[in-house]
Amino acid sequence: MTTTxxxxxxxxxxxxxxxxxxxxxxxxxxxKLGVATIPPITLIAARxxxxxxxxxxxxxxxxxxxxxDGPTWRRFIFQACLNSVxxxxxxxxxxxxxxxxxxxxxx
Length: 107
Fold this sequence. Notes:
By secondary structure, this protein is mainly α. It has four helices and no strands. Helix 2 crosses helix 3 (70-94).
């Protein structure tokens, strides 16, 4: 018995895309507001810590365990620095001098 793939619901897919764009674009505005009173490194450290804690909670709820060996954690730290810490810190630092909209476009 073969199953035919379902056709995507275009309205639902567009609503998801709009939600994603709103969340993604909104982060630049909130960073712009945050760096007015909080240093960029502190802001991004707090943002990353909150996201990490949320992911740990979701993993616990799903019963997923984290690796405990050193080489894996070194790779995690390297990837976190390249994909999150360095770019978002630079974006937050840059938003001290440019508008959030321009930072969004330049990114």
